[in-house]
Amino acid sequence: MKIKYWSLIILVTVSFSCKKLTEIFPKDEDNTSNTTNPNADVNSWIFDEMKNYYLWENQMVAKTASDNKLAPADYFESILVKPGDLDRFSWIEEDVEALTASLQGINKVVGIRFTPFYANTEKTKVALSVAYSLKGSPAEKAGIKRGDFIVKVNGQDLTSENYSAAFSPDNLKFTLGDYNGSEIVANSKTVDVVKAEVQTNPIQHYSIIEKGNKKIGYLVYLQFLTKYDADIRNVFKEFKSKGVNELVLDLRYNGGGYISSSDIISSLIVKNLKPGTLMSKQEWNTQMTSAYKSKYGNDVFDTDWLNESNNLGSLNRVFVLTSKGTASASELVINNLKPYMDVILIGDNTYGKNVGSITLSDDKKRWKWGMQPIVLRTVNSLGQSDYGTKDGFTPTFKVTDNAIPFMPFGDVNETLLSVAIQQITGVAASSSNANARIKGIKKVDVLNSAYPLENPKLEIRDMYIEKLPGQK
Q1: Which of 61, 13, 118, 87 is nearest to 370 (CA)?
Q2: Residue 9 β-bridge partners
Q3: Pair 352, 393: CB distance under 8 Å
Q4: pLDDT at 357
Q5: What is the pTM of this model?
Q6: Does residue 275 have a cis bond before it (omega within 30 degrees)?
Q7: Which of 250, 306, 364, 381 fits a disulfide with 220 by CB distance 3.0 to 4.6 angstroms?
Q8: Do 357 and 256 contact (CB within 8 A), yes or no?
Q9: Cα–Cα distance, 116 to 132 (Å, whole number)
Q10: For 27-61, how does the pLDDT look when each residue is reduced to its tens digit (9 = 90+)?
Q11: Angle value at C-alpha 223, between 451 and 458, nearest 5 degrees
Q12: Rounded to the nearest 5 degrees, what angle is found at the Cα of 369, between the Cα atoms of 53 and 457?
């Protein structure tokens, strides 16, 4: 069972066992058991862990005032502080192993992200405009690509009520559609796909666009995954070797990932990189702050700039393409860079998540539950962290990404990229070299501008660390 708040957008750490935590902060053994209340022991564990690490632990109800007869997921929710308001993000999962795999970008999926919109003027039908197919996914192997329209799933017309649940079966048949000048209608093409376990490759696209004396590096990055740190360094190595002097970082579809990977990308981009100087800080609750500083020193929560040899060096600014799905580690990169260079945001407001959590599981293996309580807040080198509201970062240029069909990544006429290119060159993008599909462009009424995944339960926007503060 999974408890979600709002879009289940989280900032998380990889799963640390309680043993590792208690090596730093020893706790009394809890040898209690209860045969009359089957939830007593797990709920007691939930409360004790929350009381230790929760960012707002000083506002929690007293343990004796909590209802420990509730099911664990309901109990967890009952002890949160102002859920949906102050705490929009803490959550709990029945299977911590499945959770960990998901955080590492491994899921059983078809492998698409899309924008749902009304397909006809009566608003009785919905079509899905594919934003991308994951590399190596069943969708990509079946030939589904960015800009395609899906109008039926397993023979059923899509509506505003059913499109979110339409992808539930493992075996799916998609009916594709065409734009006929006024609406999206089904064509004769169908595609059969079967869900499979897929490892996300976050480097969805990169290219260099040359405009006069401008060499514009363009990168579509889906998730901050350490498995691909070497690959992202190689992308920037190529950018640097080919003289890239402007950068467009497309984070529309990026809900976060490993903090260490976001630190790498920040250090590859920042102007006048100074390794070893302060990049950002974490703020924990009073108890954890005192304990960590006592054991490791006052700078235990500091993160410094990295010595990245492929730092682009001379950038004065960076353009970031954003959406309501741009969250957590993506927002951290934006906040890291703001004190050092112009960060120009194009698109929609970001999600607004400047707090983070750790994965807590039972080291005694008595149950599989894993928790993601909010335990920290992040600030940049100037102590700034003013985007942690439902409005997130406000874009410099507000652009609605509702022109269909979607242009290919790197197409100079693509809705958001074209705005960045115009700001860089001072010249509007020309349709003369655009993909032929440009002729069919239409503005549509979008139902969800955060580019939902095929399975809403996998919509986890995350930022997680490999090591606790002070651990090398």
Answers
A1: 13
A2: 461
A3: yes
A4: 82
A5: 0.89
A6: no
A7: 250
A8: no
A9: 13
A10: 544 544 556 899 999 999 999 999 999 999 999 99
A11: 55
A12: 100
Q: Are 373 and 330 in contact (CB under 8 A)?
A: no
Q: Strand locations in 373-469, DSSP E?
A: 374-380, 397-398, 403-404, 442-443, 463-464
Crossing angle (nearest 10°) for helices 40-53 and 286-296:
60
CA quadruple 424, 430, 435, 439: dihedral positive or negative? Answer: positive
User: Cα–Cα distances in Å, from 466 out to 13, 291, 410, 471?
Assistant: 7, 20, 33, 9
- Give yes or no for a contact between 305 and 279, defined as CB atoms under 8 angstroms apart: yes
DSSP state of 182: S
Please name the amino acid found at residue 328: S
**Which pLDDT score, from 0 to 100, does residue 437 have?**
39
Tokens coding 9? 């957008």
Question: How large is the average pLDDT for residues 114-143?
Answer: 96
DSSP state of 84: T
Q: Percentage helix, strand, coil, to 5, in the chain?
A: 25, 30, 45
Concatenating the DSSP letter of every residue in 244-267 gives: --EEEEE-TT---EEHHHHHHHHH
User: Is residue 366 exposed (0-12), middle (13-18) or buried (19+ Cβ within 10 Å)?
Assistant: exposed
The whole-angstrom separation of Cα 383 and Cα 265 is 20
Domains in the chain: ranges and CATH: 1-105+201-441+455-472 (3.90.226.10), 108-199 (2.30.42.10)
Which tokens sit at 240?
């640097």
